[in-house]
Amino acid sequence: MAVLTHTFTRTHNAIYFADPYKQCEKCGQWVDGAIDAPGPMIVIPCEHQAHYRDVCPSWGPVDGCTCDEFGFQHDKRAPVPGDGKVY
Questions:
Q1: For residue 67, pLDDT beyond 80
Q2: Which of 69, 66, 72, 35 is nearest to 50 (CA)?
Q3: How many domains, in total, are found in the chain?
Q4: Is residue 51 a part of any domain in this protein?
Q5: Is 73 contained in some domain?
Q6: Confidence band (pLDDT; 50, 70, 90) for 71?
């Protein structure tokens, strides 16, 4: 999903990812999306101007994370309070 955000001087496009297994390369926090900005994107929610990396090589929109089936190991995302989803 894309959302337009604006500052006092510019309008930016914020992109929210369906894939919950992305981490900020600067701090390692889980990333929900990114704001298109000059240079590297600004990652959401930590707001670092950095790149993000995919943690789960097998994530898909239908099956979700299938790493356990293929023997891959990676950090699991904790449940988000209130939405009932476990990532």
A1: yes
A2: 35
A3: 1
A4: yes
A5: no
A6: confident
- Which residues span the domain enclosing 35? 2-55
Single pTM value for the model: 0.68
On whether residue 78 sits in a domain, the answer given is no
Reported confidence tier of residue 24, pLDDT bands at 50, 70, 90: very high
Residue count of the chain, please give it: 87
Q: Among 78, 72, 31, which Cα is nearest to 54's?
A: 31
Distance (Å, rounded) from C-alpha 87 to C-alpha 84? Answer: 10
Kind and range of the H or E run holding 6: strand 2-6
Q: Is residue 21 part of a domain?
A: yes
Burial of 24 (0-12, 13-18, 19+ CB in 10 A): buried
